[in-house]
Amino acid sequence: MKFKEFGNKRLPTIILLHGGGLSWWSLQNVVDELEHEYHIVLPIIDGHGEDGDNTFISIQESANTLISYIDQNYSGQVYAIGGLSLGAQIVTQILSIRKDITKFAIIESALVYPIKGTAVMTVPMFKLLYGLIKKKWFSKLQAKSLCVPEELFDRYYKDSLQISKQSLINITLSNGNYNLNNLISKTEAKVLIIVGSKELNIMKKSAKLLHETVVGSELYIANSMSHGEISLVHSRDYVSLLKKFFKNN
């Protein structure tokens, strides 16, 4: 896991984790809106982009790595931690392990219900389809499904070429098999849960379960938006939502 930093280190630190198949650059617009008021850290999750040489192992492994980073660099606590999709699952796992690691947490589109058959389908599927990733036409379809803005496609395509087959398999297995740890109910963080109204039912079901499990959490349903759309496409709305959440808590 590598780390990109923006803004003044003396300001409150916010750590934001990108979604699976993306990288730090997907959050650049969010950084632009926040870096004058906060110190922003964007981890590059193992197996992605500039950290493509390191194989992604699991959500749990990534959570432990980030906890160690926070312990070593921020005395065990930061102002806020947020994440999208795979990044949100990592945030969820962190909150389950360390209840006092952050004042605020933002969980956007985190799958917390295991998907049946993930293990059976994943390995054979990637053996057949891995070569398609290098095809630009296929990457354009993937980018569209991930709500990657058109101006960021070249970055997405370049980074997609860096992901190894094993990282893709491990990401898919870890994502599809992730089960909510009920210890998250002990977190001392104020938690904002975000899901798009146009997302799959299992994603909306996951958001509801998180909201019910974390007493006092806030659930925000992004109207007419798909998976990751609010942070990736409507960055100003996403930042306004975060600032309002911080201010009201």
TrEMBL record:
<protein>
    <submittedName>
        <fullName>Alpha/beta hydrolase</fullName>
    </submittedName>
</protein>
<dbReference type="InterPro" id="IPR022742">
    <property type="entry name" value="Hydrolase_4"/>
</dbReference>
<keyword id="KW-0378">Hydrolase</keyword>
<feature type="domain" description="Serine aminopeptidase S33">
    <location>
        <begin position="13"/>
        <end position="215"/>
    </location>
</feature>
<dbReference type="InterPro" id="IPR029058">
    <property type="entry name" value="AB_hydrolase_fold"/>
</dbReference>
<dbReference type="GO" id="GO:0016787">
    <property type="term" value="F:hydrolase activity"/>
</dbReference>
<dbReference type="Pfam" id="PF12146">
    <property type="entry name" value="Hydrolase_4"/>
</dbReference>
